[in-house]
Amino acid sequence: HGGDALKAAEEAKTAGVRIFTIGIGRDEGAPIPAPGGGFRRDRSGEIILSRLDESTLQKIALETGGSYVRSVTGDVDLEQIYSQGIKATLEDQELGSKRRQRWEERFQWVLALALLALALEPLVSERIRRGGMARA
């Protein structure tokens, strides 16, 4: 399981994704509850234990520039995890936005008016071009 997770972390890093991991559970493991009651068992009938793999979780966070936080009580306090893990990591890094000047070409409007003037030029009477308008 750990190898697949580390490979996925490498792909996430390549895509610019940071992963913040949370460790929940015990090092010695705990049985996994089954939906109908009791605990999940393997093919030989032994109860399956889910163990906390802090090493892999830390590697995933480190690989992607995130952070690892362990939930000690078993009750996940998201505010504490956010403030100690995610927010602290983000504050340590410079997250300032960069301002760039983006030029927008607008010559098309002037060009269109110039072409329109050239197209209308033959239609303008000879008198107007010479500076005199017919007087009534």
Descriptive notes:
- The protein is mainly α and 136 residues long.
- α1 packs parallel to α2.
- It has a domain at 2-92: Rossmann fold.
- The N and C termini lie far apart (97 Å).
- The strands form two sheets. A two-stranded parallel sheet has the order 1-4.
- The chain contains five helices and four strands.
- The chain is rod-shaped and about 105 Å long.
- The mean pLDDT is 79.
- The longest helix is centred in the middle third of the chain and has 15 residues, at 78-92.
Quickly describe the structure.
With 136 residues, the protein is mostly helical. The protein has a domain at 2-92: von Willebrand factor, type A domain (Rossmann fold, 3-Layer(aba) Sandwich).
- What order do the SSEs take from the amino end to the carboxyl end, as H and E? HEEEHEHHH
Helix percentage range: 40-55%
Strand percent estimate: 5-15%
Rg over C-alpha atoms, rounded to the nearest angstrom: 35 Å
CATH architecture of the domain at 2-92: 3-Layer(aba) Sandwich
What is the rounded distance between the termini? 97 Å
Helix and strand topology:
Layout lengths: L1 H13 L6 E4 L5 E2 L17 E2 L3 H11 L3 E4 L6 H15 L14 H14 L5 H5 L6
Parallel strand pairs: 1-4
Antiparallel strand pairs: 2-3
Which key terms come to mind for this protein?
Rossmann fold; mainly alpha; 5 helices; 136 residues; two-stranded parallel ribbon
